[in-house]
Amino acid sequence: MENDIGLWSVLIAVLGGAIRVGTPFIFVSLGECLTEKAGRINLGLEGNLIMGAMTGYAVSYLSGSPWLGVLAAGSSGCVLGILHALLCQNKQVNDIAVGIAMMLFATGIAFFYGKAFIQPSAPHLPSIGFGNWSSSPVIKAALDINVLFFLGVALAPAMAWFLRTTRWGNAVRVVGESSDAALSLGMNINRVRLLSTMAGGGLAGIGGSYLSLYYPGSWSEGLSSGQGLMAVALVIFARWNPMNCLYASLLFGGAAALGPALQSVGINWGYYLFNAAPYVLTLVIMIAASSAKGTVRGMPGEFVK
Amino acid sequence: MTEQPILEALSICKQFGDVRVLNNISLKLGRGTVHALLGENGAGKSTLVKCIMGYYRPDDGQLLFEGREAQIVSPEQATALGIGMVYQHFTLIPNMSIAENIVLSRPNLPAVINWPAEISQLEQRMGEMPFQFELRRSINSLSAGEKQKVEIIKQLLLNAKVLILDEPTSVLTPTEADEVLDKIYQLTRDGKLSVLIITHKFREVMKYADDVTVLRKGEYIGSAKVADVDPEKLAKMMVGEETLTQAPSRASHKNRRCVVQIDKLTVNNEQGLAAISNLDLELYAGEIIGIAGVSGNGQKQLTEVLGGQRAPLSGQLRVNGQAFGASRREMVEHQFYCLPEEPLRNACVANLSVADNIALRKFDSPAFTSMKWIVKRKAIRDFALDLIQQYKIRTAGPEQNIGALSGGNVQRAVLARELAQALSVLVVSNPCFGLDFKAVADIRARLLEARNQGTAVLLLSEDLDEILELSDRFFVISGGQLVYQTTPQEADLQTIGRYMGGH
Prior knowledge:
The complex is a heterodimer.
Chain A: H1 2-37, H2 45-63, H3 66-89, H4 95-114, E1 127-129, H5 137-142, E2 144-146, H6 147-165, H7 167-177, H8 179-184, H9 189-213, H10 227-237, H11 242-264, H12 271-275, H13 277-289
Antiparallel strand pairs in A: 1-2
Chain B: E1 7-16, E2 19-29, E3 34-38, H1 45-53, E4 60-65, E5 68-69, H2 75-81, E6 83-86, H3 98-104, H4 115-126, H5 144-157, E7 162-166, H6 174-189, E8 194-199, H7 202-208, E9 211-216, E10 219-225, H8 231-239, E11 258-268, E12 274-284, E13 287-292, H9 299-306, E14 314-319, E15 322-323, H10 328-334, E16 336-339, H11 343-346, H12 354-358, E17 369-370, E18 374-375, H13 377-390, H14 407-419, E19 425-429, H15 437-452, E20 456-461, H16 464-470, E21 473-478, E22 481-486, H17 493-500
Helix pairs in contact in B: 14-15
């Protein structure tokens, strides 16, 4: 009987963790998905995430409004996105290299300005207690869901719809699939990529604000543990499909919650091993998605060259 | 022609840097006619139509569309006016459906696209189209010929009044080419469509064009009614007074010695699908074996396997009776050399000098090294200078980067490298693609010479005329299999076309 409860609470904790830990993944992966759909890879999103976390926390602390913090985090991500896009527009510039440089740059800036905000405590984002009917603290904790999660869940189908049916969304796809075709249609490739990278960067920034304003819920330098980079793998796993990005994010979130969940029921061995689950998952996915001989299905045509 | 032309270009000039690409070019496209634009590579044909399409701004000159001056500054604007172009390199988006490709190329697309309505609208108009397609099919699943047709109906659905076709038949089988051009020709007869077609095939000009304009090296040579000219006259207009290299006559060899045996070769393409399946082929010394076929039927993969650039999935490759894995050592041992298509991309290091590229095969051989490890720069330079002269490679010097050379000269340089030693096997793929008459004549003469000296030559070419001219016997490749074998003497174009089309 005791074992049963243990198993159940692990499952519920993993489910709650999928939502709690997965939310920033949703934003970052959708941002990366949009950027890659336009034919560019932005590895700098890890930087956007950390920058967003710092900016969001600082603005929330200074203004007293966490939502203003989210807005500021998104804006900081947009600015970084624009910078990435502008750098990539130059000839002979490689988007991967720029992405890594941008990641280090943004992380450094965030640490520099964030020093002052490590101590004070900023107002948090509100959450909705879906578990209040239950007396079990495990269920209560698991079903305490942040508003940003719902925003992320709504964003995935919205992005799928945007890419499929709107003029702008189709412009993004054309530019990402074939720059030759885009040129022959008179599209401004650089502008489409600039806007996509900007919006994608903004989403990653919002994801960052979730980290500092909700879970784990404070600003520190070790806040992000590579979520921004894992999102790149996640987008490949999701085959560049926004809905799949949502599911994959939840899967990653669940994997990340495995360690704490097991610890909460008293399984202490292998805590760090289980904490490594999302990284192992990333590796497994990269290996599973790779092919020695071919290109990955669904990959935007511009990457195939 | 008494009627006013639908499109007129008047003394167009265009300069890139110091190079005059177009010098006072004029052209009149009559309403409801097919007008051929003829010229060698580098004659300025593509630049001229790109000026018309708004890709380039001409430095000087005027464009008149339906009698009024038109300032076309972007391809979008050309589309809006009713000028559509089918590019030589297709601009269809491979991962999208036919319907998506057509709808997305429409100017003034609404902010939100109603896909079901758009598709049913397209379906209604498909009836008037010369070619029929299931609109939901993905471009990936189409053959080159089908893509060409989709490009054409795309332009027709965009209400093009003027259609510009850039080398439309270069990827088609002869049968397909006739079908497409027939349909296009019929469409022009009721005056609703006028066509400007870039080509270098005289047969197509004579059969389908009403008028012809010839360009040479950026100069306007002349225009004429096709009824008033013959291929000989056109050739003279295109080439000028240059004399072409005469090909040596075929030497006959007495004993047929099998040099290369390919046994049940199966090769996958990038998508992991079979590009070549169970292919058997034998090459004999002193013989040119042709492989004819439409691009994308496994020729690329076959060349890559033979050139050591791709591992086969299964099958045996034997040269002189020994297993051959296309390693550098084996290539030297068996004198096995290869000229892949697009040699700048596939067989050169673009950022190395012409001399270094020419020496790639033997810079590590005793003649070019001292104490086995130190490369003798001077020997490489002398070797290159000699070949540059022999093969008439036009370069600023052996130190120039090979990437800066024109296509014909890169081809000559790589051919020089591959032919510069005793040779028993030579694999060449589309050796004359995109080259001018003079370079073509040079290269074909070299290939025949190699054959006469006893080399076994495998010639893969999408140009059937080239196969018919050079090969001793040839196969048709389709879907990764050799489906038909014949000789140029017995060849029947209809039959070959049928096999090339995969029927």
